[in-house]
Amino acid sequence: MASLHFDLETTAAGSKARAGVITTDHGKIHTPIFMPVGTVGSVKAVTQQQLKQDVNAQIILGNTYHLYLRPGTEVLEAAGGLHKFNRWDRPILTDSGGYQVFSLAANRKIKEEGVMFQSHIDGSRHLFSPESVMDIQRSIGADIIMAFDECPPYPSDYNYAKKSMELTHRWLDRCFDRLADTPDKYGYTQNLFPIVQGSTYKDLRTASCEYIASKNAAGNAIGGLSVGEPEEMMYDFTALCCDILPKEKPRYLMGVGTPWNILEGIDLGIDMFDCVMPTRNGRNGMLFTTQGVINIRNKKWASDFSPIDPGLPCEPSQYYSKAYLRHLFVADELLGLTLASIQNLSFYLWLVAEARQHIIAGDFKSWKAGFVEVVKQRL
Amino acid sequence: MASLHFDLETTAAGSKARAGVITTDHGKIHTPIFMPVGTVGSVKAVTQQQLKQDVNAQIILGNTYHLYLRPGTEVLEAAGGLHKFNRWDRPILTDSGGYQVFSLAANRKIKEEGVMFQSHIDGSRHLFSPESVMDIQRSIGADIIMAFDECPPYPSDYNYAKKSMELTHRWLDRCFDRLADTPDKYGYTQNLFPIVQGSTYKDLRTASCEYIASKNAAGNAIGGLSVGEPEEMMYDFTALCCDILPKEKPRYLMGVGTPWNILEGIDLGIDMFDCVMPTRNGRNGMLFTTQGVINIRNKKWASDFSPIDPGLPCEPSQYYSKAYLRHLFVADELLGLTLASIQNLSFYLWLVAEARQHIIAGDFKSWKAGFVEVVKQRL
C-alpha cells in the first residue's frame, strides 16, 4: 500500500502551531494529536471499544521491548501482527525499545553492535541491535516504527552526549538499511521515524536535527527531552529542533507530557505527542479536566454529585459523578481506574482537537494563553 | 409506587423449574435470573454501560455492610439513594449485611438486640440490629431488601442451629415492624424478603420455611446454604424449601453458585441467584463459557486466536481472542480483569436466559441434562 503522507493544512497566526492530516494504511490522523500508550498491546484499564467511542483515540502506541518479551514475536506473527492481535484497527506506532532497555532492563551493556540486556521479567539475556529492533517491529507491524536510539540521561556531559548522538546516527543508518532489505509482512506499509538526540547541547541538537532531516523520512521525532530537565529548557530545545526539522513532515515530541506541556509543544510546531501521564496519574486518582486538575481522593468531592467533567463530551465523564468516582478510589474498586483513565485520555484527545480548531480558526495563540492557566489550576 | 409483583408464566414439564416476570418500580426482571454482585456499588471491573450492553444484567446486588461503611448512608442519602449514586437505573437488591458481619468483621458479638462488630477497614465499633439494618437499607434504597439474619456456619450442632433460627425469626418480625414504621425515602417501593435458615436439619428447615411463608412477603430467600456443605446436601435442602415456600412468590437461593449449581437450582424451583464466582474467578483467569471451563493462563491458549467464547452473544467475547486475553493475564494487564468479568457475567446471564427459553419451550429437563455436562467440562 502507500507510505505515510502528511498534509499540512494551516499554520496558526503568530505561532508555529500547525493543523494537518497524516494518512496511513490504517486510516487518517488529524494533527496535532495525542497518542495513548498501550505498552503491551493494551491501553491500561480501557477497552478498544472505549478508546474509540469515549476517548476518540486516532492512533495508539505499542512498545517493542514489552511486546518482544510478551507475547513475543512468534505469537504476534501467528496473529498477523499487533492490529489483529489486540483488534485495534486504527494506526499504531511502536517505540523502538531503546528507552525501555535503558530504563527498565538490568545489566544493560551498550556496544557498537547494539545493547545486551537482561529482561526485567525473568532476567533472561537479549541483544537489541538496530537490525533486530527493525525485525521485531516488522513482526509487530505498526504503521509508524521508531529508530533504535540511545536516550542519554539528564544531565549528561558533553563528550558522552556527543558520542551517544553519533552512535544513534550510525544506528539510524543501519535501521534504514535493514528496513530496505526486509519487506512489509502484512500487506501495508510501515514508516520509519528517526529520532533527534544530542541532550541539552545546542550544537549537538542542531547537528542531530540536520542529520535526521537529511534522511528525508516520512516523519521525525525528538527524543531525549522530558527526562528531568527544567520545563523551559525542554521548550527551548523543542523550538530549536522545530526550526530545523522539515515543515512538510510531522514532528513527534516523544514522552511529553502535561496538558500545558502539550499546548506549548503545539505552539512550537509539534504535531504528535505520547505520554503515560494521563493513564498513570489517572490510576493514582489525579484527574485532568476542562476545569483544572483534581485529586479525586480528596474529601471535598465526597458529596459532589456533579459530573466528573461537565465540560468534556465523553459519556462516562458525563454519566458518573465526582462523588461516585471518589468512592470507587477510596474503596479500591477497579472501576475507578477505568473511569479515571477514560477521563484523562478523553481530556487529552479533546485538548488537541480544541487546539486544532483554534489553529484553523486563527485564534490559537490567545486561546492557548488563557487555557494554559485553566488546565494548570488545582481544583 | 407499587409493591413487587411476580407473574408466574410457566412451570417446566417434568421439573419444578419456572419462568416468570418480577415487576419492580425500576423495571421488570425475567426469571430465572442471575444477579451480578456489586458489593460497594460497583460490579468489580465492569462499567454500568457494559453491564447493560454486554452482560444484559437486569438487576444487581449491593451490600449493606460495605455500603454502610463506604460511602456511608449520609452520602447515599445526599445522592438520593444508590440508584442515583452509581447510576444503575434498573432494579437493585441489597443483602442485609448479616452474612458479612459474621464472615468479615472482627470481634462480632451476637445478642438478642443485634450484633456488635468491628469494621474490617478501620476497626471501628458498630451495632447492626434488625432496626438499624432496615434503616440503612432505607437509605440505600434498593428495590428488594433482605431481612437481618444469622447465617450459621456448616456444620453447626442442632441446638445452635435451632437457637440461631429462632433468633433469625424474632429478628424478622422486628424487620417487618421497623419497615412498617418507616416510609420509602425516594418515592418508590422497597420490598422485604425474609430468609429461611435452619442449617442442615430437616425439621428446622421445615419450621423455618413455614414461618417465613406465613409472613406473606413479596418474595422469599433461602440462606445458609452453599457454605461448605456437600453439593448434594445443598440440592436436597433447596428441594425441601421449594416444596414449602409459596409457588406464587419468587424464590431466591442466596450465594449460589457454579453454572451447574444454578441449573440444578432452577430445576428445583429457584427463581433468583447471586454469587461472586463469575467476577472473582474471572479475575483469577477462570472463564465459564458455552463450551466449558477455561483456565485462560494456560499455555495452550497462547496462539488460539478464536474468540473468547464463540457461542456467546456478547460483543467483547466475540471481538477479542483467547490468545489476547491470555496475554493480558500473563502480562498483568487490568483489561484482562474486565474482559474476563464481562465474559463470565455475560455467560451467567445467557445461561439463565437459555434455561428460561427451554422452560417455556417445554424441553428444559432434557436440555439441562445435556448442558450440565458441557458447562462442567474443563477445556
From TrEMBL, chains A, B:
Where do the segments described as RNA binding lie?
A: 255-261, 279-283
* Catalytic activity, EC: 2.4.2.29
Q: In which pathway does it act?
A: tRNA modification; tRNA-queuosine biosynthesis
In terms of InterPro entries, this protein maps to: ArchSynthase1/Queuine_TRR, TGT, TGT-like_sf, tRNA_ribo_trans-like
The record's keywords, sorted A to Z, are:
Glycosyltransferase, Queuosine biosynthesis, Transferase, tRNA processing
Membership in a protein family = Belongs to the queuine tRNA-ribosyltransferase family.
State whether it acts alone or in a complex, and with which partners, per the record: Homodimer. Within each dimer, one monomer is responsible for RNA recognition and catalysis, while the other monomer binds to the replacement base PreQ1.
According to UniProt, the name of this protein is Queuine tRNA-ribosyltransferase
